[in-house]
Amino acid sequence: MSGRKQFNVTDALDRAMRVFWECGYADTSLNALESATGLARSSLYSTFGGKDALFRQCLDRYAATYGARYEQALTTYPGEPVRAVEAYFDVVLARIADPAVPKGCLIAQSAAQSANLREEVSMRVRALLDTQRRRVRAALADSGTEPRILDELAGFVVAVQQSLAVLSCAGSSDAELRVVVRLACRTVADTLTRAEAGRPSA
């Protein structure tokens, strides 16, 4: 080889993702990204296309990593929508409690900073939240409840998920977060039960 420095693109992306996750988009400098990835600025631009493009790739990397876990949790209990939602929140709480990763959620943090993001990046954050809603909505669909209620419940579940990330950053304990989850799951169960009871008999 000619002596050019070799690097692992995926590893560099993971390191950059951690910086964005810890600092937020607005407070992440190119110097911090250079330091974390070990890449010169020219290499960052040639490999990832600049800060905005790198951030979009980090969002996608984050969504792929945790989205697969959410998908597995939500599809493990076909025909048991409440159990699926409980499993979904188990994954959320496990991520929050993991000492190996930064606090909170990169997507929730990015949504809160939408005013500082370019329009295409902000739209990407929105699209990732919509993907989460669709996953939850699909898990709830087995209940046979009318579509409007399922849409509302899916939005509620994702809203609680994002709130858990914010609360964890504010110092809420695992026990406090589990109370929120328990009440959220009860709300889902009660709403589905009421909808079932109100359905006309065949």
UniProtKB/TrEMBL annotation:
Q: Which residues bind DNA?
A: 29-48
List residues of the HTH tetR-type domain.
Answer: 6-66
Query: Entry's Pfam families?
Result: TetR_C_13_2 (PF21993), TetR_N (PF00440)
Arranged from A to Z, the UniProt key words for this protein are:
DNA-binding, Transcription, Transcription regulation
MF terms in GO: DNA binding
Query: What is this protein's name?
Result: TetR family transcriptional regulator
This protein's species is: Streptomyces shenzhenensis
